[in-house]
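ok so heres the complex, two chains, lmk if somethin looks off
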Amino acid sequence: MMRRIRVSTVVLAVAALAAPLEAGAVTLEIYGRSANLGDLAKNRINLADCRDSSETFTFKYSLGGQSTAGKKLYIFAGDNCDTSECGYRSYDSLADTGKVKIGALNLVLGDDATTADCSGADGSINVWAALLSGTTQEDKDAGDWSDPVEIEYDLVPPDAPSGITAGFGEQSVTVEWSVGDEAANDAGTGSGEGYSGFDILCWPAPGAAAKSLPWNRALPADGGPDGNADSGADSDADSDSDSDTDTGNGAADCGSAGGFVAGDAYDDQYVCKEMGRTDRTADVGGLTNGVEYRFGVVALDEFKNPSVVSEAACAIPAEVIDFSEAYKSAGGTGSGHYCFVATAAFGSYDHPVVRVLRVFRDGFLEKLPGGRLAIDGYYAVGPRLASALAAHPAALVATRDALFAASGLALLLLSIGPKAATAAVALSLALGLVVGLRLNRRGRRT
Amino acid sequence: MRALFACTLLAALTLPLAASAYVPSQQNGAFELKFGPYTPNVDEEPGLKKSGSKPYHDTLGNDWMFLTVLELDWQIVHMWGMSLGVGGSAGFMQTYAKAKTPEGVPSSDYTVLNVIPFAILAVLRVDALADELNIPFVPYFKAGINWYLWWVLAGGDTVDKGATPGWQLSPGLMFRLDSFDPMSARTFDNEVGVNHSYIFGEFTWATVEGFGQGGFMYLSDTTFLIGLALEF
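and the predicted structre for the whole thing:
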């Protein structure tokens, strides 16, 4: 059990003269942690570590071959045992080297503390090993002490981010947030606290089979999914007051039932994206258009203490039109990855056959040696071929039939992949060459 | 005797001047850094114009791109107060806007058009005004072939890319900065090899439409660039 002692000033004077607290042959180091819940540096304790009564530090000591007759090993923990109380444990039967375990909670708050006491403190403590011959205070100043091992602790979670907004995109949402006392947090206060990152919480989870929600509605009269830039208060520029059925509209319980709730303790099962310490915006992808998602943000400090869940914001991903789509759908023919001939033959860039050929170009042809050259060559003549086809309907029909057959072959090649297809073609050529040569030789004989 | 004295005195006075006379270094080329607005005429493509569609205007708005260009010229011939050379240039410009839903509501996704304009140019500069008449202006004319690479981003991903060939004509006027501080200009030449430095303005008629072949995104514009130039 860790008990408290105070070293007298008289003893301190003696100790100072004899310098008994100087490093001696006794050494101490951190050997390991039992769980290290926060995935921290070995010498750091966070709130989760403190609240986990099974979280222990294993210290490895060495007595440097000293005689242990009539002596005990003491492990002291405190700020400065010369000037203030230090907790300690003593061990009787000693090997020259060995390990001792002490709970994280006991190191920080003493043996009388319970997990309920884990809050509101940060700082650091030193831990020493000392080989002493007695149990009195004076004895403790006459023994051999190790160098201290510093343990840092932070039992103060950061403030939750605020000002959460969620703006919809196509199968994505952009979440933005701010932090209250950013300067204080970033500059580091207390035990050097600053943000180490932010976790974005999503509900429902991206990629999960999104349940079709009753309010999965058509776009409102103003044309927009009302999740755009919603925040805790209904501050969006949505002026319609009649048909807006957006549940909660950015309030803490907006979106579908279930999942996380604003103000709740951090639960990593809802984390859909991890962001860095300086990030204040996150793009969450892999979402389903038309499904309402709820987002929250949790701040993590340098000790990986999580804040509570921030206020929530909701958004509904929706189809958006980028410049390329607008340009192509309006009839633009700029030669990007455009299938001139196939589009001319089938009349639409989005015709299934054209799509197959596009996939074949990007997923197969481009990966072949010389494939890029072939594609570039096609783009050099493609527009002219397409123009010529447009002027000759009979050729257009023949081209359409040929491309239809080609798309079947493309699907076959895509299914076996570029490498296997190249090997198959090479093998076929080799076999053809061998058979051809033999037939040629036989022909000569006859 | 008087004549001898006069000759000696003249020699004594002119000798130091002759010793320190400025001999410009050989001039081989020019470097230019220029900036200006650029608004490609995407919506002028015949198919788009015919249908009345304005995809560029509708998705990217009316803002012009900020064009930055680096140009390097090799001045092959110097004669009759002019220099004739060839050059190459490359630049970059970008415009972006929030992508909208089919109903026109802006989303948080950005759609971006990036363009890298390349050019191979013939460059004629008339140095005679500045060199012979001490009028610090150098008119010039450039003509060349362009190759504009473009690509479109949506939601951070490249969704389309391509290239459009074309041609350009660029008359311009350079103001020779040497006239402000001739001594520094000479020092600059002696120590670094920069013969002259300029600020300049340049009109550019860029017709980047695939030479009328079709199948190319229209990226033409008429614009005015300003910049700094060094001849070396």
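quick notes: The first helix of chain A runs from residue 9 to 18. thats all i got rn
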